């Protein structure tokens, strides 16, 4: 069930918007991400585009990498990750919550809600 954003969530959303506003560079950095770990640390990053698409790196993955470099990957909340990044976030923090667009504006949901069958294997 989606939850209404609290003040800390709104601040995180603002941080994601501000990092892209600050670092946006046409054709290189056009997506921003911000995440908060359970320790309260906030990591913000921009997407790294590349002429070779396979080399491009999502802002969310960079933020998780920044947190890993700091030894703090227990993600509490992250702003609007793409599908691939949802998998990454779930691997590092299966109890994380994400801020995603909702019918009435941004809302916070558990990562498992976005990946309902993760870890479930079926045989063909």
List keywords for this structure.
single chain; about 120 residues; alpha+beta; 5-stranded mixed beta sheet; 4 helices
Gist of the model:
The chain has helices at residues 7-23, 59-69, 83-92, 111-114; strands spanning 32-37, 42-46, 75-79, 97-102, 105-110. The chain is of the alpha+beta class.
Task: Characterise this structure.
With 124 residues, the chain is α+β, with helices and mostly antiparallel strands. It has one domain (7-108): Cytidine Deaminase, domain 2 (3-Layer(aba) Sandwich), CATH 3.40.140. Helix content is 34%, strand content 23%. The chain is built from four helices and five strands, in the order αββαβαββα. It has helices at 7-23, 59-69, 83-92, 111-114; strands at 32-37, 42-46, 75-79, 97-102, 105-110. The mean pLDDT is 86.
CATH superfamily annotation: Cytidine Deaminase, domain 2
Number of helices: 4
What sequence of helices (H) and strands (E) makes up the elements?
A: HEEHEHEEH
What composes the largest sheet? 5 strands, mixed
Please tell me how large the radius of gyration is: 15 Å
CATH fold call? Cytidine Deaminase, domain 2
The N- and C-terminal alpha carbons lie at a distance of 32 Å
User: In CATH terms, what is the architecture?
Assistant: 3-Layer(aba) Sandwich
The strands making up the biggest β-sheet line up spatially as: 2-1-3-4-5
Fraction of residues in β-strands: 15-25%
Portion of residues in helices?
Answer: 25-40%
CATH class: Alpha Beta
Secondary structure class reads alpha+beta
Globular, elongated, flat, extended or rod-shaped: what is the shape? globular
């Amino acid at each position: 069930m989606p939850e209404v954003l609290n003040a800390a969530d709104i601040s995180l959303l603002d941080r994601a918007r501000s990092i892209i506003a600050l670092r946006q560079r046409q054709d290189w950095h056009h997506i921003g991400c911000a995440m908060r770990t359970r320790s309260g640390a906030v990591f913000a990053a921009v997407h790294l585009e590349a002429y070779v698409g396979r080399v491009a790196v999502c802002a969310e993955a960079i933020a998780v990498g920044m947190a890993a470099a700091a030894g703090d990957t227990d993600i509490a909340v992250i702003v609007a990750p793409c599908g691939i990044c949802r998998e990454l976030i779930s691997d590092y923090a299966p109890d994380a919550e994400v801020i995603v667009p909702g019918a009435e504006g941004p809302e916070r949901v558990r990562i498992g809600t976005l990946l309902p069958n993760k870890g479930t294997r079926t045989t063909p």
